[in-house]
Design goal:
The protein contains 15 helices and nine strands. By secondary structure, it is an alpha/beta fold. The chain folds into two domains: 198 residues, Ribonuclease H-like superfamily/Ribonuclease H (Nucleotidyltransferase, domain 5), CATH 3.30.420.10; 129 residues. The strands form three sheets. Strands 3-2-1-4-5 form a five-stranded mixed sheet. The protein has a two-stranded antiparallel ribbon with strand order 6-7. A two-stranded antiparallel ribbon has the order 8-9. Helix 4 links the parallel strand 4 and strand 5. The longest helix has 25 residues.
Length: 357
């Protein structure tokens, strides 16, 4: 039985850590720079767009990647659609990161290898180059600022190829050191892949409307904060200023967590401190961060993908990734349809009233 190991390097105007692999791979600016691969004990090879397909890799009985979720998204949305690669069957796919997590090891490739004492160290210089090449650089003084520019060139490409091949060697050594998943766990991993690729529907109009209401609420809260502090604090996000303000009134506070604020409120603070902390609490409820995260990673078909992390704890349970619907606060009303309609109506009314006539 032959085993193939592979790794993809890419670049895009989209931030991978914000958008997630599926949204990232779907963006038209995302392109594959190279694919490093090795078969069994063979030396790593490099494939670049335009080369003949790597038939040895595609014919392997098992194909391994570290964090296969990324390679799966890139293969599905770029390699198959732009470069003519066949679909890699899910039954062939293996993930060395999942094996590491199942053994309570770090998820990162270099950290897992170090934990096992493998003779592979991260190519720090290659990693820094990869990071620079993966995102647009700033235009130079005499360049058109409206265009996109990249760190690129023959020397950089050669160094990137070496870095990518090194990762394949590390991934191979890690995979061989770790026990495989139990068949039942491998089936769960495949189910996780199917769920993450399918995603779930997002009501974009409702999300935008809710975000706009939250922004308006935060703006109103900031106005009130500026009023009660005589302009010393103008935003609920000014954490250090809020803590300093509370301390001046004789309260010890190291953070603005819900528990820390509650401790101060239990000690009969002044009206100003009480109002400030209550406004801060209200501001946390009106945060737009979840809405922003959702809108940044949802696909053009209004589906959000890749939100589950398989075997994310030593107990084997799932965890969330980026926007996490399982952590949303439970609704305080049973009239959900009425609440949704009210949010949409409020936002539409604001738009209609602000539109030029």
């Amino acid at each position: 039985m032959s085993i193939g190991f592979w790794d993809i390097e890419s670049r895009s105007t989209v931030a991978l850590d914000i958008a997630g692999a599926w949204r990232y791979a779907a963006d038209p600016t995302t392109e594959i720079l190279c694919v490093a691969y090795a078969i069994d004990d063979g030396d790593p090879q490099i494939w670049v767009p335009g080369d003949p397909l790597p038939q040895e890799l595609l014919a392997a009985d098992e194909i391994v990647a570290h964090n296969f979720a990324f390679e799966r998204a890139m293969a599905t949305r770029i390699l198959t659609t732009r470069h003519g690669w066949p679909t890699i069957p899910l039954a062939k796919q293996r993930c060395s990161m999942t094996l590491a997590l199942a053994c309570a090891l770090p998820a990162a490739l270099d950290k897992a290898a170090k934990a096992l004492g493998l003779p592979y160290e991260k190519d720090a210089e290659g990693y820094r180059l990869m990071r620079r090449m993966s995102r647009p650089r700033r235009p130079h003084k005499n360049e058109d600022p409206s265009k996109t520019y990249w760190v690129d060139g023959p020397e950089q490409r050669e160094q990137l190829h070496r870095y990518c091949m090194r990762d394949v060697e590390t991934e191979r050594a890690l995979y061989r050191r770790l026990p495989p998943l139990l068949p039942s766990e491998q089936e769960l991993w495949q189910l996780d892949a199917i769920i993450n690729q399918r995603g779930f529907f997002v009501d974009i109009a409702l999300t935008v409307a809710a975000r706009d209401i939250a922004r308006a609420e935060q703006a109103a809260l900031n106005v009130e904060v500026a009023r009660i502090t005589d302009g010393e604090i103008v935003s609920l996000n000014q954490v250090e200023k809020i803590k300093d303000f509370v301390r001046r009134y004789g309260h010890a506070i190291e953070s603005l967590t819900r528990r820390s604020a509650a401790q101060v409120l239990r000690h009969n603070p002044s009206d100003t401190v009480r109002q400030l902390l209550e406004l801060r609490r209200a501001g946390a409820r009106a945060s737009t961060r979840k809405f922003d995260a959702l809108l940044a990673s949802v696909d053009t078909d209004s589906r959000l993908r890749g939100t589950l992390k398989f075997h994310a704890s030593s107990t084997g349970r799932w965890a969330g990734n980026r926007f996490q619907p399982q952590n949303l606060k439970k609704p305080e009303t049973e009239e959900l349809d009425a609440a949704v309609n009210a949010i949409l109506v409020v936002t539409w009314s604001r738009y209609a009233n602000s539109a030029p006539r």
